[in-house]
Specification:
The structure holds 2 protein chains of 2 kinds. By secondary structure, chain A is an alpha/beta fold. Chain A contains 12 helices and 17 strands. Chain A has 3 domains: about 70 residues, Roll (Ubiquitin-like (UB roll)), CATH 3.10.20.740; about 110 residues, Alpha-Beta Plaits; about 190 residues, NADH:ubiquinone oxidoreductase-like, 20kDa subunit (Rossmann fold, 3-Layer(aba) Sandwich). In chain A, about 25% of the residues lie in helices and about 20% in strands. In chain A, the strands form 5 sheets. In chain A, strands 2-1-5-3-4 form a 5-stranded mixed beta sheet, covered by helices on one side. Chain A has a 5-stranded parallel beta sheet with strand order 12-11-13-15-17, sandwiched between helices. In chain A, a hairpin with a 6-residue loop joins strand 8 and strand 9. Chain B is of the alpha/beta class. Helices cover about 40% and strands about 15% of the residues of chain B. In chain B, helix 2 crosses helix 3, helix 5 packs parallel to helix 6 and helix 10 packs parallel to helix 11. Chain B starts with 8 loop residues before the first helix and ends with a helix. Classes of the chains: A alpha/beta, B alpha/beta. The interface between A and B is large, with 70 and 61 residues.
Chain lengths: ~425, ~575
């Protein structure tokens, strides 16, 4: 008979089996503690990702490496701890090159899921944009080092029939990568290889011919939050009695694809409300080239990739009371940052000089005083000017944009539904 | 108990590295077959330690120190001279394969910087002329072992009269014979009375640790001496190993006797490879004298032997559980706190890990008697402490101080030159201002932060030194020395470094300063081991104490809306294509 002891989690008294794992106990009691590296059958627990950090008997410690003992007092959901855990997940986004819309695992990715659950619209940390390689050499797999969060799951859990490791850490510090042994990888059965892809919390391990099989809306993390109160959390900080006076809006697309603008138009019948409530100043929708008045809000799509983008963004900052980054590119650079790890010269030469579709004889990299200058890398908008709010998504859900704008302009209460908060 | 094969991994890699100058592809294949590991695992171990290379490192491999002390003593000029003279550029080997030139963090010679290791032999107090001569000699085929310097011990101060505890004569066996009369319980009692606590910097009571290990039933038990003195600016263990190798062995014997262990291992950092013969000779002398081996010291049934395990260049291996992993021939990644080393340490057996100084102190306490020892120091913090003093002072070196000395007294002793800020306990410690100079150095009051509890080093900086540059040096140190296993330390140190660069370039504003502080705290609260938990200590302290200085470095044009952005720099690459 296992011995039962009493512990307290956030003031709630709980009976649990002595010596069991705090993470399991929390789960069994419907207390959400985010985690990425924790995997039930790996013992001792890995304790690598640190996003389950709680305060245990007053000390900061991860829940996954804590054994239950009598009288344990655990704090999980204090604002400070919530912020700390969020920060660690943000670090992962900032450290890797996580371009959700271009990732096979999107929708089934644990990291992305944690981002949704914790409501991470933008990382507080500057993205480091290290150039990490993609290893296409294994026979059956592709190792996408840009996406790896070094959780150690695959290192510990994936072994060949002879008990040898297939994955192992290489290097150390910020250069740490999970290397794959080509010879051992070839020994894995198809099922074992799929298992490796399965336990990878991100899209770092991809088994060839096994991706992109599920349509949007049917993927693992598309529809339902694991937190019961997800949809009930309301943005109340800015809430005030709505006075629906007419507001002036400006929009622009910098280094973006206009997809976010398209999404803005996707609010269906709400468009009718919108035209009543909003007038557009400088915007691709009106084709106003200049600002004609001060605006209440500026919606920025796209990151900053050339000198003209810098100028436009500064102009928006000057003329708008509030500036909102709309979509992944504006928030942190998004898809165009895929060039950030590559020297600019290489990109230009590939595009203009060595391109197979280049016109013969037109071997020239355009440079003219009338052309905007291309920056050394793509910057997020908040690296150039202060951005007041971020709306994630590629593109953001139409409802998400409209709700956020309504809240910001008129203080209308809103809550973002789980399926509306997406990075892809 | 037979130690598993993999514990030999580090030795094998060292052999290969020293024989060939690098570890060849065929070596990796052979090792993976021999140890029955996947090749990737062997590669993982090799790439963890920066003294192991997978590419040739030249006939003479030069490691130039990058610590902040080296930097301010002019290692930059030394690097230029080295590059010019050897024809090798940093991080590579010259065309003839004669010289390889690499950076390495602090090599424990802060009292005689600039310094470098050539084929792991020390060369100290370098200047351009000396470097020229050395390289010339090496080109003519001289052996670094023959022409290297013998680093001075620089023991500058000991308590007056016959007050020295550490640097008096020591008769092998004297502490242990006293221990035998006291019995294990008596030893613990003596250590408890002397209030000896871990001198690596954690200050955990030594008797508690030993008692916990003693109470474990599992056997065999191990005694591990942590001689991986990696904290930049610290070199007390170097001097202890050089002058007090007997005392170290005796301290370990004492521990072995007390807890009932049969095997002792000294984990010596790779940077101190030149001290290996010294240590091994001492061990051999102990064996010959019958003080090590079977029934050592004539105690029936007490079999105890000691061996030395070389580290290979990794700061984090000074963390006790990382050190254990390294001893087991693996990557030096700290373990989770699922078990304590006294429960399941080396090879999952009960293990006591103590610092070099702790073992020395334990032996001395037994040999001198607790009475004599506790007369030194102050109430609540009896005894003496070794400090490594370096930086802007006339007399860098080892100071054996009585606990309770003030910083001001220490600064006077070492003839500090216009001191402004002082880094205590290395980059992971505390950064104090000259305004704190009347604070005492003791084991007390850590939380109230009235006294200063030092792991062993004082780096003194004068008013001319740029604090942000110092912090940047620390940041890049932690960034490359983080083991990479946990997110906050791996990513955090990198991010902090980037942010400090912004500050250094005058791009930062108030928000950046606030964020630096907050991020430092987040890393402290979430990191897996001491490295990440303490990496931002200096930064946080410095920002508190030198607030005005940081404000001076901020972007003063910031209006709350437009961030400073260097458009010219960002378009420089494109401007190359101007027609």
């Amino acid at each position: 008979m296992p011995e039962l002891v009493h512990i307290t989690i956030d003031g709630q008294s709980i009976q649990a089996e002595k010596g069991s794992n705090l993470m399991e106990v929390a789960r069994a009691n419907n207390i959400f503690i985010p985690s990425l590296c924790y995997y039930e059958h790996i013992e001792p627990p890995l304790g690598t990702c640190r996003i389950c950090t709680c305060r245990i008997n007053g000390k900061y410690a991860p829940a996954c490496t804590e054994r239950i003992s009598e009288g344990l007092v655990v704090e999980v959901n204090t604002p400070e701890l919530q912020d700390t855990r969020k920060a660690v997940v943000e670090m992962m986004f900032a450290e890797g090159n996580h371009v959700c819309p271009a990732c096979e695992k999107s929708g089934n990715c644990d990291l992305q899921h944690m981002g949704y659950e914790l409501g991470i619209a933008a990382t507080r940390f500057p993205h480091v944009f290290e150039d990490r390689r993609i290893d296409f050499q294994p026979r059956r797999m592709v190792m996408e080092h840009n996406r790896c969060i070094k959780c150690l799951r695959c290192v510990v859990d994936v072994k060949t029939e002879t008990g040898k490791r297939v994955f192992n850490y290489q290097n150390r510090g910020n250069d740490t990568v999970v290397g794959i042994d080509y010879e051992q990888e070839a020994q894995l059965s198809e099922a074992q290889a799929l298992h490796a892809m399965e336990i990878c919390p991100t899209g770092a391990i991809i088994v060839r011919n096994n991706s992109l099989s599920m349509p949007f809306g049917t993927r693992k993390f598309d529809n339902q939050s694991v937190q019961r109160d997800y949809g009930r959390r309301k943005e109340s900080a800015r809430t005030r009695t709505p006075v629906m006076e007419k507001k002036i809006v400006a929009t622009t697309s910098l280094a973006g694809c206009f997809g976010c603008h398209m999404s803005m138009l996707d609010i269906d019948t709400d468009l009718l409300d919108m035209v009543e409530l909003v007038s557009f100043d400088k915007s691709p929708l009106t084709d106003f080239k200049q600002f004609t008045s001060r605006c209440h809000i500026g919606l920025i799509e796209g990151g900053v990739c050339n000198s003209d983008n810098v100028e436009t963004l500064r102009l928006f900052r000057e003329h708008c009371d509030l500036l909102v980054s709309v979509g992944e590119c504006a928030v942190w650079g998004g898809l165009p940052t895929m060039r950030n790890g590559i020297p600019l010269g290489e990109c230009l030469e590939e595009a203009y000089l060595n391109s197979p579709t280049g016109e013969p004889g037109a071997h020239i990299i355009p440079y003219h005083e009338d052309l905007p200058k291309i920056l050394d890398r793509v910057y997020a908008c908040n690296e150039i000017v202060k951005i007041d709010y971020h709306i994630p998504g590629c593109p953001p859900d139409a409802n998400h944009i409209w709700k956020a704008v309504k809240n910001l302009l008129w203080g209308e209460e809103y809550s973002i539904l789980y399926p509306e908060f997406k990075y892809d | 108990m037979q130690e598993p094969l993999q514990t030999q991994m580090m030795n094998r890699l060292w052999d290969l590295q020293l024989t060939h100058g690098y570890i060849r592809d065929e070596d990796v294949a052979a090792l993976s077959a021999e140890f029955d590991l996947a090749a990737i695992e062997v590669e993982g171990i090799i790439s963890f330690y920066h003294f192991f290379h997978r590419k040739p490192t030249g006939k003479n491999t030069i490691y130039l120190n990058t610590s902040i002390i080296a930097e301010l003593k002019g290692s930059g000029r030394i690097l230029e001279t080295l590059e010019r003279e050897t024809g090798a550029s940093l991080g590579s080997v010259d065309r003839t394969g004669t010289f390889g030139l690499f950076h390495t963090p602090c090599i424990g010679l802060s009292d005689q910087e600039p310094a470098a290791l050539i084929n792991f032999y020390p060369f100290t107090n370098l200047n351009a002329i000396k470097v020229k001569d050395i390289i010339q000699a090496l080109k003519q085929g001289a052996d670094p072992a023959q022409i290297c310097d013998i680093p001075a011990d620089n023991i500058r101060y000991a308590p007056s009269g016959n007050g020295t505890v550490f640097f008096r004569e020591f008769h092998p066996g004297s502490a242990l014979s006293r221990a035998v009369t006291l019995g294990p319980e008596g030893v613990l009692e003596a250590l408890k009375k002397a209030e000896l606590s871990g001198r690596g910097g954690a200050y955990y009571p030594t008797w508690k640790k030993w008692l916990a290990a003693r109470e474990q039933e599992a056997a065999p038990k191990y005694v591990v001496c942590n001689a991986d003195e990696g904290e930049p600016g610290t070199f007390k263990d170097r001097v202890l190993i050089n002058t007090q190798s007997n005392t170290i062995i005796e301290g370990m014997l004492l521990c072995g006797y007390t807890i009932g262990a049969s095997c002792g291992i000294i984990y010596l950092r790779g940077e101190y490879r030149w001290l290996l013969p010294r240590m091994e000779t001492a061990i051999q002398q102990y064996r010959t004298a019958g003080l090590l081996g079977k029934d050592c010291c004539g105690i029936k049934g007490f079999d105890f032997d000691i061996r030395v395990q070389m580290g290979a260049g990794s700061y984090v291996c000074g963390e006790e559980t990382a050190l254990l992993e390294s001893l087991e021939g693996k990557r030096g990644e700290p373990r989770t706190k699922w078990y304590f080393p006294v429960e399941k340490g080396y090879l999952q057996q009960p293990t006591v890990i103590n610092n070099v100084e702790t073992f020395c102190a334990a032996a001395r306490i037994l040999a001198l008697g607790t009475e004599a020892y506790t007369q030194l120091g102050i109430p609540g913090s009896p005894g003496v402490k070794l400090l490594s003093v370096s930086g802007d002072c006339k007399l860098p070196g080892i100071y054996e101080i009585e606990w309770g000395m003030t910083v001001a007294e220490l600064l006077e002793l070492c003839e500090a030159e216009d001191p402004y800020f002082i880094q205590v306990s290395g980059p992971s410690g505390e950064c104090i201002s000259i305004k704190d100079k009347y604070r005492r150095i003791s084991m007390l009051d850590l939380l109230a932060r009235k006294d200063i509890r030092s792991g062993g080093s004082f780096m003194i900086f004068n008013r001319q030194r740029d604090l942000v540059k110092v912090l940047l040096n620390y940041a890049s140190f932690f960034r490359s020395e983080s083991c990479g296993i946990c997110t906050p330390c791996r990513a955090g140190n990198f991010i902090i470094q980037r942010k400090l660069e912004r500050l250094n370039n005058g791009l930062a504003n108030e928000t950046d300063l606030e964020e630096l502080k907050q991020w430092g705290i987040i890393m402290k609260n979430t990191s897996r081991c001491g490295l990440g938990k303490t990496a931002t200590n200096s930064l946080i302290y410095a920002m508190e104490k030198f607030n005005a200085y940081f404000r001076e470095r901020m972007d003063k044009t910031y209006n709350g809306l437009n961030l400073k952005f260097d458009l010219d720099a960002a378009t420089a690459a494109y401007d190359q294509y101007k027609i």
